[in-house]
Design goal:
Layout (H helix, E strand, L loop, with lengths): L15 E7 L8 E2 L4 E6 L4 E5 L2 E5 L3 E5 L5 E2 L10 E7 L2 H4 L9 H9 L4 E3 L1 H13 L5 H16 L6 E3 L10 H17 L6 H7 L4 H12 L3 H16 L6 H7 L5 H12 L3 H9 L7
Antiparallel strand pairs: 1-8, 2-7, 3-6, 3-8, 4-5, 6-9, 9-10
Helix pairs in contact: 2-4, 3-4, 6-7
Length: 289
């Protein structure tokens, strides 16, 4: 597992880095941050959004603009083979290399200030801008830069109802050693998610005593181990509910050995029962972010 301050091989001929992740090419780190501004597009799918101190869900895709150095969990964590993510990273200096210069970029500067801890855009914006983000992969450097500026200008002019600000908290302060330790724990946790999860085993992976590990995990994720595991399992259940397995089968496949506890956790986190969620995603008007 690599260090969680994610580094990218910046092309020599471009100030814009475009990446693509899917099941065959996942993000190499789980809990991570980077000094660049990020624009991330998920064409489809639903799952867990864990940005800094904020944990929530996205449904039917995602378009996120995130400021530099905000720790976040990889969108691919716990996802299935249909997962796909396209994104672009660029230095804040690309827009603000000379403060006061290029007044035409003032709306974009204001947008990036609002996005310091994360902006999630509504479906109407996501569908239009997302396709443009996907096209960045095939553009030569100069056209890619111009297209990115156009995308940012479009986002800057969106009215406030078209986006939601995330209260993700301040930029990262944890050391790279702590970040890498958490990544090892999350990788092991993902392997154990469908069965019993042993806190002592996770603590041993982190090379910490159980009490020290529990404090460390809560500080890093803003969640207890139990809360984090339940949220990941409910996310797994949400994916399985798109199929035809029974609620009982889905509960067990998601790691819940007790059906009543599964129903209680699902209702607590999703504000509806598993059956109601299945009906919602099967009919028109699916859930929105």
């Amino acid at each position: 597992m690599q260090l969680a301050r994610q580094s990218f091989a910046q092309p020599l001929d471009s100030s814009v880095f475009v990446f693509h992740h899917d099941a065959a090419n996942p993000c190499p780190v789980l809990w991570h941050y980077h000094p660049e501004i990020g624009l991330v597009y998920l064409p489809q799918g639903s799952g867990r959004r864990h940005i800094g101190n904020t944990v929530s869900r996205y449904e039917e895709g995602e378009l996120l603009l995130l400021g530099p150095n905000v720790p976040h969990l990889s969108y691919g964590y716990g996802q299935d083979d249909t997962f796909e993510e396209v994104g672009v990273l660029f230095s804040p200096q690309l827009i603000d290399w000379a403060p006061g210069a290029w007044p035409e970029l003032d709306p974009v500067r204001a947008l990036l200030a609002r996005a310091a801890t994360g902006l999630v855009f509504a479906a109407t914006v996501r569908h239009t801008v997302g396709r443009q983000v996907q096209r960045l992969r095939s553009l030569p450097p100069w056209e890619r830069l111009l297209s990115l500026l156009d995308i940012l200008q479009q986002l800057a002019l969106c009215p406030e109802p078209a986006y939601t600000a995330l209260a993700a908290g301040p930029p990262v302060t944890a050391s790279p050693v702590a970040q890498e330790r958490l990544n090892r724990v999350l990788a092991l946790l993902h392997q154990r998610l469908s069965g019993p999860v042993s806190v002592p085993e996770l603590a041993a992976e982190a090379a910490l005593s159980v009490p020290a590990f529990c404090r460390f995990f809560k500080k890093m994720t803003q969640r207890t181990v139990t809360e984090f595991v339940n949220e990941c399992r409910v996310q797994q259940a949400c994916r399985l509910l798109r199929g035809t397995d029974s609620i009982t089968e889905i509960a067990h496949a998601s790691g819940f050995q007790n059906l009543s506890y599964f129903n209680r956790m699902f209702r607590q986190l999703m504000s509806m029962s598993p059956s109601a969620y299945r009906r919602t995603i099967a009919g028109p008007g699916c859930l929105t972010p």
